[in-house]
Fold this protein.
Amino acid sequence: MKAVLAVLIFLTASALGATTVITAGGRYTGVFSNDVAGQPTLRVTTTQPVVIAQATVSGVGALIDATGGQANLTVDGCVLTAKPGPYGTPKGTAIEVYEPARLVVTHNRMVSPQCGVHVVNAPGGPPSQAVIQVLQNDIENIDGRRSDGHGGYLPTMDAWGSDNCNFSHAVFLQFVRQDPNVVVSWNQIVNLPGQSAPGDCINVYGCSGTASAPVRIHNNYVQGIFPSNLMAVHSTGSGIVTDNPTTDPTQTTQWVDIEGNQVVNFVQTGIALYAGLNCRANYNRLVSAGIDLQGGFYPYLWACGLEIYDSTPGSGFASTMTARGNVIGAMLPKYEIRCDTAVSATVSPLQCTYTSLHDGYVTRGDEESERALWDQKVQEAGVQIGPGT
């Protein structure tokens, strides 16, 4: 059974145990919940402007689904909580959108989704002019684990000791091409050990801005990137990554500026310029001690603060990547040594310049200082993170 709602101006509603379908533009608020596996809690089917504001949304599937295409959607001041479902199923995505005409996600709290905001366009599709803004959200405990059906979770580590956390993300943008209107800023993303299983927290995959208006990922705080099994020796999570290693210059990630972010407590890479053309990571702070809650080093075989990687050898793409003015202090936990940067042999050292946080070991105290610095930065900027009180 589905509850179907169509309004033009304003609706306060409570729908429990069924998918609520929004079929007309308007402003929607209320309490919405759905415990049916594989079904979203809210589904937006109209292309008219829809505002979901100050709502409480929970469920075992996607929480807000606008995958019909060309949605004009604003989600503002909501609390979105993903719950574990039946055996073998992951938690849902908080906001799932396909080929939006406009998407603004601001001042929300997202709790424990597999993915916070997922925007995907068709691979090889036309350039986008959509406004896509993900601003001032509080995203807590990204969780890629699958349910064991009894309140716990199935393991995510494979037989070789690698843990990909089922490729969970806080913000995941795919194939949004040549779009001059994409901004991800002032979001706070915090994952805690034992309560989360995050992969790449902010992943820009096959997306591009323009030379004059790049995709802007700025002034975000990302804390905690580690596998759910803390004994894993490999993991795939980065704080912020440019992704999609293709040699097709029309499809690769391109014109992305990553600036003024803080990434703290990570096990693979704080920021990875992994693939693409003309991507820049400037004036970020990347700090990780590589220490678990018991005070010992994690067993990870690889970790670094900032990486410029040549994922398409021979293409020359990596030569267009630059990283300037970053402050970095990162430990490679397995060997208890510093590993602030890593650049491919095809990358000039002049493409990656930085300031060391300090000499010697990075400590948990250094990580805690980064959080205090972020709190001060938010206060001084007068920014409200999440829905507030």
Summary: Confidence is low (pLDDT under 50) at residues 1-10.
